[in-house]
Amino acid sequence: MLARRIIPCLDVRDGKVVKGVKFRNHEIIGDIVPLAEQYALQGADELVFYDITASSDQRVVDKSWVSRIAEVIDIPFCVAGGIKSVEDAGRILEMGADKISVNSPALANPQLITDLHNTFGQQCVVVGIDSFYNEETGIYQVYQFTGDESRTQQTRWQTAEWVKEVQERGAGEIVLNCMNQDGVRKGYDLAQLKAIRDICSVPLIASGGAGEIQHFVDVFQQADVDGALAASVFHKGIIAMDELKQVLRDNDIAIRDDIRPQEQ
Amino acid sequence: MAQNIVIVNTGCANISSVKFAVERLGVNVTVSDDTQVISKADKVFLPGVGTANAAMASIEQKQLVSCIRDLSQPVLGICLGMQLMVDESEEGIGKNTPCLGLIPGQVKRMQVGELRLPHMGWNQISPVEQNTLFKGIDAGSYFYFVHSFAVAPSEYTLASCDYGMTFSAAIHKDNFFGVQFHPERSSHAGAQLLKNFLEL
Fold first, then answer.
1. Which residues pair with B43 in a beta bridge?
2. Residue B35 phi, psi dihedral angles, 5° rounding
3. Cα gap B56→B63, rounded to integer Å
4. Taking burial as the number of CB atoms within 10 A of a residue's CB, which of B104, B113, B188, B194 is the most buried?
5. Portion 9-28 of B in contact with A at CB < 8 A
6. What is the residue extent of each domain of chain B?
7. Is the pLDDT of residue A169 over 90?
8. CATH 3.40.50.880 matches B5-198
9. CA–CA separation, A236 vs B77, rounded Å?
10. CB distance B144–A203 less than 8 Å?
């Protein structure tokens, strides 16, 4: 049976892993490669590296850490942030990333999704969506440049419409980051994820809000997502990977066992 | 074991990850699209991601078709590389793509009902019988898959997998082996499979 995926997300700034609350006040957590290796050993199913400086700065970002990660880890990983062109994506994939994720540049130029699909295939094209719930209007709206608070802005897209658009253009997976929940550890936005699940026929990854093990149980059982992404609960040791996976199994959620092959 | 291991440079994107995975086993590996280098290898990897038509076009443009067909040493096709080993793929622009014809079979778009495509993530495999490629790997072991097209089970199937349908997770004929999953990204089980292949 296809297992649900637990995906630690490592926000990267200047080659270090950082974490902020609601996208702000980033603090350094540690070096990328040892953290990546540690998560792989603990049983993470996949990793996402999100270069949060990239989309909001104009400069070219050093991505040599991608190949350093590819050398040591033996689980799939995705690189997000600052991928503005087919050439940018090609370089990241050549360095050994399995998938690339686009967010703000795809909003500025939706054709980018189509071009990535046609060049590299659907399987490596992930679209990240930062969705903010406006309590006054009751509408979920897509935001861009969320890596830099001073440049963060609302786009013309309602989240559901953008989800449909990116699928038509060839996205192979969607990561839906619910901004209201990000970093506050009160649980995933189940209502939004359920609504998006209904219109999403590619794998859907929940992001934003994980604070305790029950939140993962809820998001798999209630929103039927394919994977759950989280950062601070893992970085800060609030949730242990093996305990999380065992509780999910106890709740009849399909979770990978990392069986070491028998010596023969 | 100073073997001469070559990864065929198909012009596709997952070459680095395959190279790193083999190197993690302590084995040196060369990436090449030179027919002389490929022909002299002890073991050959045929990696691939992307689309069948683009990958075949790249292999043809590099004039590697007859070189690969003539190989008699063990060859392991990975993901799209496996799909290129059969006769034909449904994945193409308006028409089927003729493939290398090393193992009988057809690549077809998966029919999975309500389930999501691509089939992306960790899924369990069942080896059809004791075989060397899956030595030490239990039925039910998880491997990492990312694909929307697949080869139906046949007498050439070495291991199968279920996702809305049963399909070949691994195929084999003579010296040619293919795996639909990514051993280079499949943790311990994947490393064991690569080790088994290198020890053939």
1. B5
2. -60, -35
3. 10
4. B194
5. 13-17, 20-21, 23-24
6. 5-198
7. yes
8. yes
9. 41
10. no
Q: What backbone phi and psi angles, to 5 degrees, belong to A68?
A: -65, -35
Q: Is A68 left (phi over 0), alpha (psi -120 to 50) or beta?
A: alpha
Q: How far is A122 from chain B (nearest CA, A)?
A: 8
Would residue B79 show up in a list of annotated catalytic residues for this protein?
yes
Catalytic entry in B12, B67, B79, B161: B79
Q: How many CB atoms lie within 10 A of CB B124?
A: 19
- Cα dist. A179→A81, A154, A226, B43, B83 in Å? 17, 12, 19, 49, 40
For residue A140, give Cα distances in angstroms to A40, A163, A205, A241.
34, 12, 17, 31
Cα separation values, A202 from A1, A126, A189, A259, Å: 17, 10, 19, 28
Q: What separation in angstroms does the CA of B149 have from each of A122, A151, B119, B120, B165?
A: 11, 41, 9, 12, 12
DSSP B6-46: EEE--S-TTHHHHHHHHHHTT--EEEE--HHHHHH-SEEEE
**How many other CB atoms sit within 10 Å of the CB of residue B86?**
26
Round to whole Å and give the CA distance between A74 and B34: 28
Please give the order of strands across the beta sheet that includes B176-179.
B29-32, B5-8, B43-46, B75-78, B176-179, B166-173, B157-162, B119-127, B142-147
Tens digits of per-residue pLDDT, B14-42?
789 999 999 999 999 999 999 999 999 99
DSSP, res A138: T
Range in A177-186, A253-262, B89-98 with the lowest mean pLDDT:
A253-262
In the structure encoding, which two tokens stand for residue A103, read together? 């967010």
* DSSP, residue by residue, A175-196: EEEETTTTTT-S---HHHHHHH
Q: Note the ipTM here.
A: 0.92
How far is it, in rounded angstroms, from Cα A8 to Cα B33? 37
Phi and psi at residue A206, to the nearest 5°: -85, 140
**Helix spans in A73-156 (H):** 86-94, 104-108, 111-120
Considering only the beta carbons, identify the residue of B118, B141, B147 that sits closest to A202: B118
Question: What type of residue is B129?
Answer: E
Judge whether A218 counts as a catalytic residue. no
Task: Specify the pTM.
Answer: 0.94
Look at phi and psi of residue A138 and say left if phi exceeds 0, alpha if psi is from -120 to 50, else beta: left
Question: For residues B107, A121, A4 and A189, what is the CA-based torsion angle, rounded to 10 degrees?
Answer: -140
Q: Which amino acid is at B61?
A: Q
Sheet of strand B97-98, all strands in order from the earlier edge strand to the far edge? B97-98, B88-89, B106-109, B149-151
A65, A79 contact by CB (below 8 A): no
Predicted confidence band at B125 (pLDDT cuts at 50, 70, 90)? Answer: very high
